[in-house]
Each structure stands twice: as C-alpha cells, then as structure tokens.
Write a structure and sequence with these properties.
By secondary structure, this protein is an alpha/beta fold. It has a single domain, classed as Rossmann fold. It is about 35% helix and about 15% strand. The protein contains 8 helices and 9 strands. The strands form 2 sheets. A 7-stranded parallel beta sheet has the order 3-2-1-4-5-6-7, with helices on both faces. A two-stranded antiparallel sheet has the order 8-9. Helix 1 links the parallel strand 1 and strand 2. The longest helix has 29 residues. It is globular, with a radius of gyration of 19 Å. It starts with 16 loop residues before the first strand and ends in a 6-residue tail after the last strand. Bound molecules: nicotinamide-adenine-dinucleotide. Nicotinamide-adenine-dinucleotide binds next to helix 1 and strand 2.
C-alpha cells in the first residue's frame, strides 16, 4: 500500500470492472449507476435486466446488463468473463408475508437461503480466484440489513441468513486482506424501493411520523446506499475491511428510542 492516496477530483473507479447483482432496480441500480458514473465498467446481473440503467458515457464508465438468475446453481459465465475487481452481492429478499416460525416450511428456508446467502457464496467463490490471480486487489460488498443486527418477528430465517452474510463478510475479509481484497457489508433500512415501496405504503396521514421512525426521518433513497457503496468500492475506503456500514437514517444506532411529542425521548412509546 502506497503511503499516500491521491484524493484528486474526478472519477474514482477508472479502469475498474464491477459486477452488481440485482442491479436493474432499486438499491442495486443506484449502485450500478454510481460506480459507472465514477468510471467503472459495470455489468449488472438481473432476472429482469430491462431496468433503470441510464448512464452518461461522458463519465467514461460503462453500464450494461445481462439476464441472469443468481439463484441458479451455475454462475453465469459472462460474470466470470467480465473479470471484476468489484463485486456487489445485492440480491436479497424476505420473500413472503410475516408468519410465525412454526408455520415455515423447509422449502421456504431453502429459497430464503439461496436468495440471501447461497448465491453470495457461489458468486464470491467463482469470482474471488480471478481477483486474487490478477493481483489488482478488489472490493466485495454484501448487502445485508438492519435485521441482521436486530430482531424482525415473522422473518426469523431471513434475519438469520442476513446475519450469516454479515459474519461471512468478516471472516472472508480476514482471509483475503493480504491479497489487497477488501470485504464489507452495507446494512440498509427504510430505503424506498420496489421491495419496500415506502412512498406507496405509508399513508399520507402518517407522513409526519417519519421523525419518530428514524432520527433522520425518511424514507431513504437508493442513492443514499449507492454513495456508501461507491466509498467501499473505491480507494477512499482502502483501509476498511470486515465492516458493516448502516444506511438506515439511524434506526440501528437509536435502538428503539423515539422523540416524545411533548419533547424529550422515550424507549417506551405509548402508541407505537
Ligand atoms: N430497501 C430497503 O430498505 C432494504 C432494507 C434492508 C435490506 N435491503 C437489502 O438491500 C438489497 C436490495 O434491496 P432492494 O430494496 O433494492 O430490492 P428490490 O427487490 O427492490 O430490487 C432487487 C433487484 O434484484 C433483482 N433480482 C431479484 N431476484 C433476483 C435473482 N434471483 N437473480 C438476479 N436478480 C434478481 C430484481 O429484479 C431487482 O432488480 C437486498 O439484499 C435487500 O435485502 C433493502
């Protein structure tokens, strides 16, 4: 590692190649756009690749997409051929309405495993050897959730797999750090997307309640996560690995404390 990093204005990822899973919508699309806007050649893998992927080529980067189901047992060869320096494992979902753990089926566990954890293992396993051999270092970014760090009743197994992804992030970071490859996680909450369309699901009369749901209010936007992904993908974070960055307006940090209407704070709200 050179003793100084040049914080010059302009593109931060020129000459780098990235793969973003689930990058055609929501958080993944915002991440893909931000990496390309900073000069990366970004390949998106999505089951529905006709997404929100506007890119101004003047930025120097490239943004293209292939149709690929990351839960398939074979990694799509185009992802390996792309020779990425940056992997963003963004696909993840709770898949069903909340239900008691005892109502779960093993088939549901298996689908939750694939979409939240298994595909991340498989893709990292397929792409990491190339990153190591090329000797250019790399950055792997895993999308977890605030619920890897706190409870989510009704989604017990989802939260367990996301917590496992966070722990995978830590241990892998320790394993590959010597190769200059960094592994970090982002734990979002309250980000407006197709998965959780807060703009549609929060009734107008509840909008004034946002400041009681998170210290920064809300909802957050996919771009709020993309800024952190850009930081983790670039040399700005060159001494950061094994970490999770919470992009949640402060819900994790505040841990249930809410402002009282009359002033002050409580962790025992009367009308939750
Ligand atoms: N939005 C939030 O507030 C929030 C909160 C916690 C965690 N997260 C995590 O952030 C990540 C992104 O969330 P989002 O809200 O943008 O999701 P989203 O559901 O809005 O978008 C997901 C994208 O992934 C694609 N996709 C789904 N299954 C796929 C598959 N098998 N193979 C390839 N592509 C697939 C979809 O087509 C879509 O483009 C997820 O891992 C999610 O668990 C989001």
């Amino acid at each position: 590692m050179s003793p100084r990093v040049a914080f010059t204005p302009g593109a931060m990822l020129t000459g780098r190649r990235a793969v973003v899973t689930g990058g055609a919508a929501g958080i993944g699309a915002a991440i893909a756009r931000s990496l390309a806007a900073h000069g990366a050649d970004v390949l998106v893998a999505d089951v529905d690749p006709a997404g929100d992927l506007d890119h101004d080529p003047a930025a120097g980067g490239r943004l293209h997409a292939i149709e690929a189901d990351v839960c398939a047992q074979q990694v799509h060869p185009a992802l390996i051929d792309h020779r990425p320096d940056i992997l963003v494992s963004n696909v993840g979902h709770f898949l069903r309405a909340p239900q008691p753990f005892t109502a779960d089926t093993a088939e549901q566990w298996s689908r939750l495993h694939e979409i939240n954890l298994g595909h991340g293992f498989r893709l990292t396993h397929a792409l990491l050897p190339g990153m190591t051999e090329r000797g250019r270092g790399g950055s792997i970014i895993n999308l977890t959730t605030v619920e890897a760090h706190r409870a989510i009743p009704g989604h017990t197994v989802y939260s367990a797999y996301k917590a496992a992804l966070m722990q995978f992030t830590r241990s892998l970071a320790a394993e590959v750090g010597a190769a200059g490859i960094r592994v970090n996680a982002i734990a979002p909450d309250l980000i407006n997307s197709a998965q959780v369309p807060y703009d549609d699901i929060v009734p107008a009369e509840d909008l004034p309640l946002w400041p009681t749901w998170s210290p920064l209010g809300g909802p957050g936007q996919p771009e709020d996560v993309a800024g952190v992904a850009l930081f983790l993908a670039s040399d700005l974070s060159r001494f950061v690995t094994g970490s999770t960055i919470h992009v949640d307006g402060g819900t994790h940090g505040s841990g249930g404390w809410v402002p009282r209407a009359a002033g002050g704070w409580t962790n025992r709200p009367r009308n939750p």
